[in-house]
Amino acid sequence: MNELNPDIYTVAWIAPLEIEAQAALHMLDNHHRGRFALNRGDDYVFRAGDLGGHNTIIATLPAGQEYGTGSAAALASQVKKFFPNLWFGLLVGVAAGLPSLSRHPPRDIRLGDVLVGLPEGNSAGLIAYDLGKDTGAGGFQLLRDGHVLANTETVVRSAIQNIKLMAPQDVDTFKSYYETIRCKQHANGDFNDPGQDHDHLYQMDDKGVSHIVQRERRPDSARTRVWYGPIGSGEKLMKNTRRRNELRDKYSIIGLEMEAAGTMNRIPVGVIRGVCDYGDEHKNKGWQSYAAAMAAAYAKAILYEIRPKASAPAYVKRETDDQGIQSRLPVRTTFLGREEEMSQMKQCFGSDLCRKSLVLWGLSGSGKTQLAIHYVSTNKQTYKSVLWIDGSTSALIHQSFENLSHHISGYNRERPATEQVIEWLERETNRSWMIVFDGVPGAYDVDDPENFDIRKYLPTCDHGHILLVTTASDLHLRLALPEIHLEGVDDITGCSILLRCAGVQAPDDSGKATARSISHKLGGLPSLLNKLALCYPTVSFGWMISISSFNSAFLIRRSKLP
């Protein structure tokens, strides 16, 4: 088995519990085959893969080890020592949620919601609530007022903020990731939602008697919420309603967990937790798998928000023919809207694996590639293999096939790689795949040496799904294939893209109107809106620019766009 190199891994995903680690492993884009060499004193075995272009390790506690701040500290210390080039870490798992219905507005936290540790007012983003000293008359005083020594890396907080800007639609940024693992099996079942009918919050009266709190059922479209605020971290498992409420009210915390305080001062992690109970006497494990999956999905969204520092080695997963190949997808950028086009693509390909082909075409910058990425990411569970091919030139197609050919069974270096990959796709035992050709050029001209006929690279079998992405308006006609014409987004979606990319947190009505007008003038092209937003610093632009001044400013800025 291959020996993995610790030097290339830049992200640590810490998932102390087994169910948390299982959810994390399902979220990886690719699993890296091999093991890390261990020396005397190395007590932990790590799993590795890549996600969003980041080489990532999954760290969990050994079987049978007690969990808590002490165990988490030991694990984090060895992670930091073993991987010298870590950039940042994420602590991802389950926690107790702390609803506060008497607040204004109410903090109606429910099972399956996601908690993200962030400072709020004078409160730290993480409160080590049992670390301190008894001062006698002054009562229990938190060490450093509960603040930990290290802060989460700025880039992680920035990614969280980028997702938070979408609230209450922030769930849309990661819900599709949860859907990919929802039906995955683990030792005690799967990651499905137990259902709102089984979510019971109890309130204790003055006599110590618990009563179920009647709460309005959430609509299915708003089943999950993300809560941002301080999270409490302690050594003991919380199963006490009165103590829970005391901590909630004293420190304004949204949840309780047991590892972050031990981890943070060794690796400044972002703390992401799914709510699996309410920290009361009714605590049980029935919601852990669903909560762990929701937290893992949010963590994956964070990694996709952060562009990797440098190109990572192009690992491709290949274990057996049954597990197939998963190409690394291009980096995702801001993606909003396109529900109609997503529905059309789903209708075209369906869930069966008979041969289906589709041409996705539109102007450069209309978001074709990002739509293709989003469709593939959302429907990965449908396919054992997903092959992403740069289809812009014949040379790049051959290079893509060359890279893939080394990871198919029966590879023969003496034979053309393209031929071998196509034959592999056409095998009757290999029916579950999608191949995407991105950037396919227009009309084929036999007299143009730079041009080529895409048809010679398409498998001819009666199974598999093929997606061709192009700016050519006639490609679907020449190939006699169904098509989706991708035009600019509507003004409201364009406004959201523009404001989000520019980092505008709370635009007023005038700012929104300006953004909608600018989106309309630019034809709603997502790529252009994204680049335009990056041209204007948020503070100076402030979204108070007028349409007339935008016209002149845009002509100057346009020449500077890549």
From TrEMBL:
An annotated GO BP: nucleoside metabolic process
Domain of life: Eukaryota
GO molecular function list: catalytic activity
Family annotation (PANTHER family): AAA+ ATPASE DOMAIN-CONTAINING PROTEIN-RELATED, ATP/GTP-BINDING PROTEIN-RELATED
Protein name: AAA+ ATPase domain-containing protein
